[in-house]
Write a structure and sequence with these properties.
By secondary structure, this protein is an alpha/beta fold. Helix content is 17%, strand content 23%. The chain has 4 helices and 8 strands; from the N terminus they run H-E-E-H-E-E-E-E-H-E-H-E.
Amino acid sequence: MLVVTYNFAMLFSSGAEELSPYMGGPVKTLTLPNGAVINSYIIENISQTQAQEPEIIKVTDGIWQVVAASFVYPVVIEGKDGLIVYDTGDDIKDGKNILELIRTVSKKPINTLIYSHAHYPFGSTALADDPENVVVIRGDKLNGN
């Protein structure tokens, strides 16, 4: 029987002698303009994990993901009579940015909104084409519209 073992800390490191900051290695901090202190590794490597420019990416026919238009990465699903948007942004500005990208792939009305959790419904005012007739799907613990 062959047994293979891994040193998982080394799998996530940038070199054999240096542990990743996620696996017990040293953390170098950086102070952002707003005063927030963050692990500099995040800023130095963010382009590897986050889209840098807003765009809408086709996942498959009738399904897109909106990236970098807000902190939220909404999913858009095309239905027969309209669009379903899963998560709508943290505020109206996010909603407007998301809507602008959605309109590059479909002019169908947005008639269903799904909220995954509490702070993701706030862009919905900008997205709802007909607020009186939008279906909202949310968890029981999520108050609001």
